Amino acid sequence: MSQASWTKQGETLSLKNASKEFGLEESEIKEAINTEKLQYKVNYAHGNPYFKLLRKEVVALVLELRGEIFLEIQKIDFKIKTATKGINSFKRKLSSLEKEKALLIQQKTSLLMGD
Fold first, then answer.
1. Residue 106 burial (10 A CB sphere; 0-12, 13-18, 19+)
2. According to the model, what pLDDT value does residue 3 have?
3. How far is Cα 70 from Cα 81, in angstroms, rounded to an integer?
4. Residues 66, 82, 8: CA angle, nearest 5 degrees
5. What is the pLDDT of residue 5?
6. Domain residue spans in the chain?
7. pLDDT tens for residues 46-76?
8. Predicted local confidence at residue 115, as pLDDT
9. Residue 2: left if φ>0, alpha if ψ -120 to 50, beta else—which one?
10. Residue ranges in the chain whose pLDDT is less than 70
11. Among 23, 36, 26, 9, which residue's Cα sits nearest to residue 78?
12. pLDDT for residue 4
């Protein structure tokens, strides 16, 4: 595997994100690391170490352990979760903007009425 794969955006992911995105147990990923099915690098975020994995190798592991249908279902589930998070974020932002608008209209009305 080329060194470029480790630095390209989207080509790597953390052990925890691999577990979430692909539905694998962390113990399964660690076992694959120990048996050298997965390469890893140790990175640090805010002083805390984490395993960085190559996405292609994680996909190959999922295919080996669970099969193609499981992988496709996991991809769809992950996209659904991502879409739901985005929708909920926009709902919160919309609610905040609606409150701000109502407050501004109230302030404008108060000024026009001469309170």
1. exposed
2. 78
3. 16
4. 75
5. 85
6. 1-66
7. 999 999 999 999 999 999 999 999 999 999 9
8. 63
9. beta
10. 1-2, 115
11. 23
12. 78
| Of 79, 95, 77, 60, the residue nearest 23 (C-alpha) | 77
DSSP output for the chain: --THHHHSTTSEEEHHHHHHHHT--HHHHHHHHHTTSS-EEEEEETTEEEEEEEHHHHHHHHHHHT-HHHHHHHHHHHHHHHHHHHHHHHHHHHHHHHHHHHHHHHHHHHHHHT-
| Residue 114 CA to its chain's centroid (Å) | 51
What is the amino acid identity at position 20?
Answer: K
How far apart CA 89 and CA 83 sit, in angstroms, is 10
pLDDT at 23: 93
Intra-chain end-to-end CA distance of the chain, in Å: 72
The Cα–Cα gap between 105 and 75 comes to 45
Q: Which of 115, 10, 7, 100 is nearest to 58 (CA)?
A: 10
DSSP-assigned beta bridge partners for residue 45? 48
